[in-house]
Amino acid sequence: SMDGPPAPASPAGLSAFVAVSQLLGLTLLVTTGAWLGRYRGGVAWHSPLQFNAHPLCMVLGMVFLQGDALLVYRVFRNEAKRSTKALHALLHGLALVIALVGIIAVFESHRTKGIPNMYSLHSWCGMAAFVLYLLQWLLGCGFFLFPGASFSLRGRYKPQHIFFGIALFVLSIASCLLGITEMLLFKISDTYSHFVPEGVLANTLGVMLVAFGLVVGYILTREEWKRPPLAEELALSMDFKTLTEGESPGG
Known about the structure:
CATH topology: Four Helix Bundle (Hemerythrin (Met), subunit A)
Subcellular location: Cytoplasmic vesicle, Secretory vesicle, Chromaffin granule membrane
Number of strands: 0
Shape: globular
Distance between the termini: 25 Å
Order of helices and strands: HHHHHHHH
GO molecular function, one term: oxidoreductase activity
Radius of gyration: 21 Å
Main location: membrane
Domain Cytochrome b561: 20-221
Structural class: mainly alpha
Largest sheet: none
Pfam family, one: Cytochrom_B561
Strand content: under 5%
Number of domains: 1
Helix content: over 70%
CATH architecture: Up-down Bundle
């Protein structure tokens, strides 16, 4: 564009770390699929294999997509804030829908097999993560995506939104680790201690979940990698009330 200077390049190292995070994320999905396909019979909805949709959906939704949604503001540094916000909300919303499918899968599977629900630490942490994630998404949309919240109210809520965003990502990964351990103890408790291939593969998946969380967390907490406000956003923040009333910011 001739109207201003070209968009600044990404800070040194950011692109490499984002690439590593995506490689880890895709490897997570492949490893989960390999575990379920090779050792647990695969995934099918109206069958005894319905349960297997649960771990696949949770890793895809509550870990990979949630992590990517958190990275949106680091990756899309020079795009309009409104577009970035919309993508952030869309990815979180998609993660919620996929996670809901995973929750339905486990409840239906338990009902069919006569297994009780919500008694384990994994189920408590997992359900807490999902419910709080849904609440966080609704509050985020209400405060930041749709017009109505005052600028000062947004400013006061933003630190809470950021903290709980990272906290829920950590809780989601912790819930997955508990779920992997629980599944192994149910399915291969007699042989798990003998380093059987299924146990090693599932443990490797757990280590990769932790690695994905650490890489995403590192990207999010590097101060110099935070998205700088664009010139028009600074103008907006200086005269937010005027803008929301439909006049020009410089009027």
